[in-house]
Amino acid sequence: MKIIWDKEKVKSILPQREPFLFVDEVIELEEGKRIVARKYLDPELDFFKGHFPGNPVMPGVLTIEAMAQAGILVYVTARPKIVEQNPTYYFGSVNAKFRSPAHPGETLILEAEIFKVANFGGVVDTKARVGDRMVAEARSIFAIKVDPDSNRDFAK
Questions:
Q1: CB 3.0 to 4.6 Å from 150: which of 22, 84, 85, 105, for a disulfide?
Q2: 17 assigned to some structural domain
Q3: 125 lies in which domain range?
Q4: What is the pLDDT of residues 51-107, one digit of tens each?
Q5: Does the pTM of the predicted model rise above 0.85?
Q6: CB neighbours of 44 closer than 8 A, spacing ≥ 6?
Q7: In degrees, to the nearest 5, what angle opens at C-alpha 105 toward C-alphas 91 and 73?
Q8: 103 carries an active-site annotation
Q9: 89: CATH
Q10: Closest CA relative to residue 59, chosen from 48, 74, 43
Q11: What SS3 string covers the chain?
Q12: Any idea of the CA torsion for 31, 81, 86, 74, to the nearest 10 degrees?
């Protein structure tokens, strides 16, 4: 698949950095609606060493974080001016279902679709899968905090 956004573009939007950056690239994008991203699960990632020795799997909380990062990316396409304000993102309620583990060497496909969007937050539906195998699904509610002195007009 064609890469729409490379890692440098992703890093220009997300505040996270390695080792806590869980989106490598964006491969599909419907601005303001839906995004599909990838995370390569390098066997050398530190969390695989302890979760679990002899049977390494990606921790569920990190799968949720990867889906949340994809959610931020799709939100930003609906409110692109928000990035200029260097916001802080807060994920609140996350209703997640885990279906299958993700293992070292696999590629996690992250899908995020906007359910509802507002200037200072929204609701996103996300999925994580490996190939056709569903790893997790979640509906997440999040809020955005910006410097009170910044321009608050985030409309497209």
A1: 85
A2: yes
A3: 7-145
A4: 999 999 999 999 999 999 999 999 999 999 888 888 999 988 889 999 999 999 999
A5: yes
A6: none
A7: 30
A8: no
A9: 3.10.129.10
A10: 48
A11: CCCCECHHHHHHHCCCCCCCCCCCEEEEEECCCEEEEEEECCCCCHHHHHCCCCCCCCCHHHHHHHHHHHHHHHHHHHCHHHHHHCCEEEEEEEEEEECCCCCCCCEEEEEEEEEEEECCEEEEEEEEEECCEEEEEEEEEEEEECCCCCCCCCCC
A12: -10
- In the prediction, which pLDDT does 119 show? 84
Number of domains making up the chain: 1
Ramachandran sector of residue 24 (left: φ over 0; alpha: ψ -120 to 50; beta: rest): alpha
In this prediction, residue 94 carries a pLDDT of 86
Residue 156 in any domain: the answer is no
- Contact between 10 and 70 under an 8 Å Cβ cutoff? The reply is no
Residue 39 lies in a domain: yes
Q: How far apart (Å, rounded) are the C-alpha atoms in residues 121 and 1?
A: 30
Q: Which of 11, 34, 38, 51 is catalytic?
A: 51
Residue 7 pLDDT class (50, 70, 90 cuts): very high
How many whole angstroms separate alpha carbon 72 and alpha carbon 89?
8
C-alpha 136 chain-centroid distance? 13
